[in-house]
Amino acid sequence: MKNNVLLTGASGNLGKKIQLTMRGFSFLSPDRKELDICSPDSVRRYCKENSFDTVIHCAALARMQECETNPTKAFEINTLGTFNLVSSIREIEKLMNKNIRFIYISTDGVYKCDKGNYSEDSPTIPYNIYGWSKLGGETSVRILNNFCIIRTRFYDPENIPFSESAVDIITSAIEVKNLIQSIQFLVHDKFNGVINIGNKESSEFKRYSAHKPHLKKCKKADIANSLNFEIATNSSMDISLMKKVIKL
Asked: In whole angstroms, what is the distance from residue 74 CA to residue 248 CA?
């Protein structure tokens, strides 16, 4: 059973939760000084000096506002950074005759997010820079032999950092603990390809107010008026493949 895992983005919200809750794994969780995915030399050196069977690639520039104001940085980290990592994995696989499992955490934002119920085969037409940069990362991951691209949107019910939420924004957002259970299953499973990981569709207000009773209702327009970038209207996903593949 594979248990040596290179975890990128280990200091992020998802990375921290993965280390706390995924049992039976030995994590390599380098900081940026040890592994800078934007530097091909840094990635190549780290991959040659460390042994692992699996990669869970969480590292990303995920703040939409920052992606919009600095698209160069978004594509450098999310697209080129992923390409650098994939390239080094391919080198190591050939050199060491290994078959490394690669789990890539993508986003529901690769879909157009206007009508919802997107399947893995739906057209990928991102609505903002973040989505395009993550889709670029997906393109690199697809050249590997043993990969799983997870399209998702997740939240921590213990940390809902806003006071109001929209009744007309629909998502398939999943609790972070449930996402991690799916990641753990997919590390060991033979599934190869793209998979939507989420919950049944719901408005953001309905989903979050279940955990934060004093949350106030608002509309998408109330949120969008204060932003300089596009936000989703309906990013809900068809999760029928998830239900077939993941047995928890």
From this structure: 34
The DSSP code for 20 is H
**How far apart are alpha carbons 102 and 244 in whole angstroms?**
21
User: Could you report the per-residue pLDDT of 129-162, keeping only the tens digit for each?
Assistant: 999 999 999 999 999 999 999 999 999 999 999 9
Residue with tokens 């009744």: 167
Tell me what pLDDT residue 1 has: 45
What's the predicted TM-score (pTM) here?
0.96
Identity of the amino acid at 3: N
**Rounded to whole angstroms, how far apart are CA atoms 205 and 13?**
22
Confidence class of residue 78 from pLDDT cuts 50, 70 and 90? very high
CATH superfamily, region 4-156+173-199+237-245: NAD(P)-binding Rossmann-like Domain (3.40.50.720)
**DSSP 8-state class, residue 143:** T
* DSSP state for residue 118 in the 8-state scheme: B
Domain boundaries, the chain: 4-156+173-199+237-245
| CB neighbour burial string for 30-62, b if at least 16 within 10 angstroms, e if fewer | beeeebbbeebebbbebbeeeebbbbbbbbbbb
Average pLDDT over residues 57-84: 97
**Token duo for residue 110:** 């690769």
